[in-house]
Amino acid sequence: MKILVINTGSSSIKYELFDMDHPRVLASGAAEKIGEGAGILTHRRIVTGGKFSKEVEKGPIADHQAGLKRIVALLMDPEHGVVREKSEISAVGHRVVHGGEAFHATVIIDDKVMEAIRQNSHLAPLHNPANLMGIEISKAVFPNAIQVAVFDTAFHQSIPMKAFLYAIPFEMYEKERIRRYGFHGTSHAYVAEKAAIFLDLPLKELNLITIHLGNGASMAALKNGKCVDTSMGMTPLAGLVMGSRSGDVDPALPFFLADHLGMSVKDIDRLLNEESGLKGICGTNDMREVIAKMNSGDERAKIALELYGYRVKKYIGAYFAVLGNLDVLVFTAGVGENSPEIRELCCEGLSRLGIEIDQRRNCNSGNETKEINVPGAEVKILVVPTNEALKIAQETRKVIES
Ligand code: AMP
User: Which sequence positions are flagged as catalytic?
Assistant: First the structure.
């Protein structure tokens, strides 16, 4: 069974084609700068020996439909294609950012689902309309494939009211559905499952804290394998210090910025989402550059990293209290998977909680799941490479087979 995973953004389509029977990636890539003058399409396809060859096409991509048609043409190229007929693709799994309270799980897309995604668009105005467009185009291009929606928010729908409700007038929740939703759900779910498999223990018997540290960053507390709290909120701005997002600030900060500095809502939005976090403090949102700057004596980079690690540590403490008992701590995503320094910073001084990193294990390279706690520690600390596209493909398969 072949499943195409699509992530449609306002000016891009990212894709990955999976052969679920073997399981492996057959092709992947992205059409970017759609609708702009200088479009770019990157396409990787499997060649002999499980290696990948890469092609890059430069030139305008008029719109998303043109982009997806070009991707399909590459997938079906008579000489280098990885599928012969469109009908070989049984299903298309779409990443949908905001499912609101309507979706607790992956669903097959029908008109009602489309309408519900549309109704949640005000909660993710930059993402849901693009995701919907991706679905519409995919339905036209693959009329015989089953279309499936996998939501970033669905995994967090098990969070209890005491953790998701904001202490503002209750009508704001009842009428406007203003509450914590949480994001990166496919990643948190994927690494939690992988951790349980690695430890050979049932997920539903484990309490975990999953720490997704990429350009965006979030944490989740899982009790008996189910999410009970997460650091992002109604939007992905809340919680940890991120590449260019502030994470938690005083909720009155926007009023101050408006009243005293005359900033508009748009300016404040840009300040907190695009000019803050690591970038706001030391000028770059790329963690590799921040670490390099710190190593060359840059004081701001040092402060940025201290803030970054301190915030993660505070959330570990909070979630430890929420869970009462912690079995597993999982690091994932670009920073979490690749930076022993940051993992160490986040766990420094937590040995009283049973959280203790083994320095040698922490520095082992390789991109497989690995255990990095000291032998015999109460809490297992794992590094688990995330794979959101694979999780979307797995969910898609599960839902169409059931
Ligand atoms: P992601 O959003 O998951 O792709 O993660 C992107 C972030 O991971 C960027 O800030 C990168 O600088 C960071 N990253 C990738 N590789 C490394 C590494 N070896 N050490 C530190 N950070 C890394």
Answer: 152
pLDDT at 124 over 90: no
Instruction: Quote the ligand 1 centre to 286 CA distance (angstroms).
Output: 7
* Domains observed in the chain: 2-151 (3.30.420.40), 202-388 (3.30.420.40)
CA-based nearest residue to 7, from 67, 80, 86:
67
- CA-nearest residue for atom 4, ligand 1, is 334
Compute the distance between CA of residue 210 and CA of residue 377 in angstroms, rounded to an integer: 18
Q: Measured in angstroms, how far is the CA atom of residue 70 from the centroid of ligand 1?
A: 30
Is the C-beta atom of 295 inside 6 A of ligand 1?
Answer: no
Please return the burial class of 51, using the count of CB atoms within 10 Å of its CB with bins 0-12, 13-18 and 19+: exposed
pLDDT of residue 357: 98
pTM over 0.85: yes
DSSP calls for 98-132: --TTT-SS-EE--HHHHHHHHHTGGGSTTTHHHHH
Average pLDDT over the chain, rounded to an integer: 96
Q: Ligand 1 in contact with 338 (CB < 6 A)?
A: yes
